[in-house]
Design a protein that fits this description.
1 helix; eight-stranded mixed β-barrel; globular; about 20% helix; alpha+beta; Sortase, Chain: A; about 270 residues
Amino acid sequence: MRDHIPVVVQGSGRRARRAGPVGVLWASAELTVTVGVVLLLLVVHQVWWTNRQAAAAAQEQVQALERSWGQDPAPDGAGAADAPDLPEPAATETATVPVPVPAPAAPGPSRSSRPAAAPPAAQRDRAYAVLRIPRLGLVVPVAQGIDKRAVLDKGYVGQYPGTAGPGERGNFALAGHRNTHGEPFRYINRLKAGDELIVDMRGHRFTYVVGKILSETTERDTGVIAPVPRSVVKPDQGYGEPGAYITLTTCTPEYSSKYRLVVWGTLKPS
């Protein structure tokens, strides 16, 4: 009967001792990759998917408004905006100003430059008009207020509380996202003096003409949405006489909310 001869494997203890740290490093690497993939998916969801959803919903709202007005909807693709991240002014900027809320006028296919009557308070945060910017191929609904969840994140353009209604004397001031959530104002930096900004309501069309562009100002420059719009940060930028103005505001540079980009226009005589 043969004696059992034990076999000694050298170095196994050293490898065993290394297995602990190596295992931890391996697990850490796997966790890092997993977290990176999750973050990438979140970014894709935020930048791409929510953007598509908001843009599609906004175009459905435009078509719903046009149907309710009894007019033909815009051609397919007319509202596909290759075009607001949004300027998000502090809530106190307009909170103390009375809110004149524009609303649809009496039904009818005719268009005029007369301002419409104010709607009931129940219309707040609901789309009541359509903004068209031919140069950008932009067609987007306009709602009262600049609340992100209720208005801007839906892909809508929001009217600053306390500003004049479409066609009215004063400043019809709007905000919109520049990136994500439909990004209706993404390309307003491409607008030039003389470009038209068209606002449709039931039975009314108001055409504004771009006059001035403020490429950068602070988020608290409340002068840009004043009844006579003039920057309080750059006092040489803006207007000095009462009139009927439109103001478009959004964030700049892209994918940042550090500054605000402002486009001003004046109502075109009918």
